[in-house]
Amino acid sequence: MFRPLLAFAALTALTACSTTQVAQVQPIDGVISGQCHVDKVRGAVGLAASSATVDRARVDSDSLQVNVVRGQRAASGATASGAGNPTPGAESGGDRLTIETGRTNNITAIYCG
Burial letters for 39-72: b for 16+ Cβ neighbours within 10 Å, e otherwise? Predict the structure, then answer.
C-alpha cells in the first residue's frame, strides 16, 4: 500500500529538482522607459554576444527592442574589441538598441537606433 505512494512521492521530488530555473532579466528600477541610453552598457563591448548578454544590454539601456547586426568594419581601431569607435551611432534616443558583432561573435559596437 505504501510502496506506490512512496514511489510517486520520490518521482515527484526528483522531477521538481531537475527543472532548471532560468533567472529573468529585470531592470534595476523595475521599469523600462523605452528611451535608449548606451552609457550604462558600454562595458559590454568586447564580450561575447550571447543571448543573455544581449538581453541584459537591452534591459540596462532601457530599450524596448534590440537589433544584433554583423559589423562591416573595414579597419579595426586601437580598442581591445577591435572597434575604432564603440558607439558610432546615437548615444541616446529611440526605443531600439543596436549591437554590432565581429567575426568571432564578440560585441564591437553598441548604439541607439
Answer: eebeebbeeebeeeebeebbbbbbbeebebeebe
